[in-house]
Amino acid sequence: MSKLGLLVLMAMFGLTGCAVEFENPQAARELADLAKPPGSVYTGWRVYQDKCAGCHGAEASGSVSAPDLLLRVRDLGPQRFVSLVLQRYDWGLPATQAKPQTPARAALIEDILQRKDAPIAMPAWGDEPRVSAHILDVYAYLSARSEGTQGLGRPAP
User: Fold this and answer.
1) Domain that holds residue 65
2) In angstroms, rounded to a whole number, what is the distance separating the alpha carbons of residues 147 and 140?
3) Within this chain, do residues 107 and 86 fall inside the same structural domain, yes or no?
4) Could you say which DSSP state residue 84 is in?
5) What is the pTM of this model?
């Protein structure tokens, strides 16, 4: 086969690949969706505003009592984020009082939510149903904010 024939053949294969991509935009969208963190940015924003903004600030950029989450989330993947938020943080209670059913733990949660004692330590949120059910949504919101794909304020539903 001549060089010209080979060149024509290569061009045909190249254009065929473009035509498949052009005719099948769904595959490109699916690949783009796989690159996004799991969860809903809007739902994550709602849970964040309800459970996290009181300490970390409405825009997740930190406050005098809690760090900037946008800087911290940049280095975390979803698995590490979930682990840290749901399990890692200490309650500041003895192990015998840190079980989910104890009145001491319920009182500590209430104190944290009402910011009665400052400074407070970040609690583990694993036993809080709204946070544990939507932890990947919170991650999606914070990731979008830290990457700059979500601006300030309320995201679109």
Assistant:
1) 40-147
2) 10
3) yes
4) I
5) 0.60
